[in-house]
Design a protein that fits this description.
The chain is about 50% helix and about 10% strand. It is α+β, with helices and mostly antiparallel strands and about 200 residues long. α1 packs across α8 and α5 packs across α7 (about 175-185). The relative contact order is 0.15.
Length: about 200
């Protein structure tokens, strides 16, 4: 398999889960500005033009982080990286993955845009902090997002929440989120993924 990534971007979660699953894969670095990889035009791989992309051994391509995370986890059900299909717990997992994708991922990544001016920044931050409070409150009574075990939801949240440092978004008041970040950061899969992308821990 091949995982197309850009250092520090949203493919980090997919890489973490691939490592948790002990699946063999190669990393393909992608320049998101030029839409190029070492092999050529990235848009031939994913016409959407963004990562993550997981190219399977069959040549088929999966896109969208939340879908990729579930596919990987479903290859190794014994590792409990996502609840089984058809269970109530799976739909809770989908609920949280959608929350992370639509409220946190989009809510934080917008601050990378130079088009976000000071006059709208405050209102966007206010909305984001409402979402962060929801997660923090949930984590006050849960070690991980889905309960007591590490899952795809934690990898995705960890990936996205790392951006707050780069963007100077203050999350110091969210003790439960910070505890999750610290707990996840100590996993071997996370350390290996961060190192593979050339990032600082």
């Amino acid at each position: 398999m091949k995982l197309y990534y850009s250092p520090g971007a949203c493919a980090l979660a997919s890489q973490i889960i691939l490592r948790e699953a002990n699946l063999k894969f190669d990393l393909v670095k992608t320049d998101l500005k030029t839409k190029q990889t070492a092999n050529g035009d990235f848009k031939k791989v994913n016409p959407k033009g963004y990562i993550p992309v997981l190219e399977l051994d069959t040549g088929e391509v999966l896109t969208e982080g939340a879908a990729i995370l579930q596919w990987i986890a479903d290859q190794v059900p014994e590792k409990n990286l996502v609840p089984r299909w058809g269970t109530k717990e799976r739909y809770k997992a989908l609920e949280w993955l959608n929350f992370i994708a639509t409220e946190l991922h989009k809510g934080i990544s917008i601050f990378f845009s130079p088009e976000v001016k000071d006059e709208v920044r405050e209102s966007l931050l206010k909305k984001l902090h409402l979402r962060l409070e929801v997660l923090d409150q949930h984590l006050r009574s849960n070690t991980f997002i889905l309960g007591n075990g590490f899952t795809v939801a934690d990898a995705y949240a960890f990936n996205i929440l790392r951006w707050t440092q780069l963007l100077k978004i203050d999350i110091s008041s969210y003790a439960s989120i910070l505890r999750l970040m610290e707990t996840v950061s100590t996993r071997d899969s996370v350390r290996a993924a961060i190192a593979a992308e050339g990032l600082k821990g």
